[in-house]
Amino acid sequence: MDEIIIAEAMHGQVRIHAADTTQLVEDARIAHQMYPTSCAALGRLLTGAALLASDLKKEDEKIVAAVNGHGPAGTLIAQAKGNGDVRGLIGDPAIFITNPETGKLDVGKAVGTNGYLTITRDMGLKDPFTGTVKLVSGEIGDDLVYYLAMSEQISSAVSVGVLVNIGDYSVKVAGGLIFQLLPNVPEETIEAVEKIVQEMKPVSAYLDQGMGPEDIIHELFDDAEILDRRSVRWHCGCSYEHYRDALAVLKKEDLQEMIDDGKGAEIVCQYCHSKYVFTTEDLKEILEKQSENR
């Protein structure tokens, strides 16, 4: 089962979130039939959103991360809830671009840099908090670091990674790390964390060696203390009832036009591609109830 481990180190001055999201990203790949670079891009954003949401206190609170760098991948959206449910989408799931020099998947080129990263924190209050920053590299990790520094004034380091089996495009490993420094930490703590960041391998490399999130934390921080464990999973949460309610808020004329057409309605969820079919009789029932409630 995929999980996020939350820990602290260096006498409580550093907070660490480490995640294994391999199955989550694989389920997303299957749902969207993604090619390797699309999968790596969305997988990184899904992982980043899940890491940010692991601090949420209530199950229905959520983080929504949206990226559009005007690259060929188009718009990427990831939504992560306090209960561990994560879902997302990508404009073009069929991107397979590699960097000719490194041979690695070129997420930055797929995402692009001529655009923005927007993070919305919906805590169930009247107005969600939204922060937007320009993209730094389109590689997702760097962009999350810049967002946390500029919008939330948090000094952090972020590593998110996805390894894809090129043969069948399945996800080999996926995961992420976020280190956050508490305010007013001494300079030696900052230097120590910077040294760890400079010397550590990509998070996907640790996972590929068979290490779990807790193993990675203890590998990087000798004095790490585990504070919490949270499971995460790919789960859309869409339903027939949800889309019936969506149809119920359409204008009476629009519903009547659909009824007169005689073909019913088919709605496809953009997050998981589940199909919901409403017959003409279903639409008539929705219209009747709509009229009764007005």
Short précis:
With 294 residues, this protein is α+β, with helices and mostly antiparallel strands. It has 2 domains: 3-234, 3-Layer(bab) Sandwich (Hsp33 domain); 240-292, Alpha-Beta Complex (CBS domain Like). The chain contains 10 helices and 13 strands.
Describe this structure in words.
By secondary structure, the protein is of the alpha+beta class. It has 2 domains: 3-234, 3-Layer(bab) Sandwich (Hsp33 domain); 240-292, HSP33 redox switch-like (CBS domain Like, Alpha-Beta Complex), CATH 3.90.1280.10. The chain has 10 helices and 13 strands. The strands form 3 sheets. The chain has a 6-stranded mixed beta sheet, with helices on one face. Strands 8-9-2-1-10 form a 5-stranded antiparallel beta sheet, with helices on both faces. Strands 12-13 form a two-stranded antiparallel ribbon. The mean pLDDT is 94.
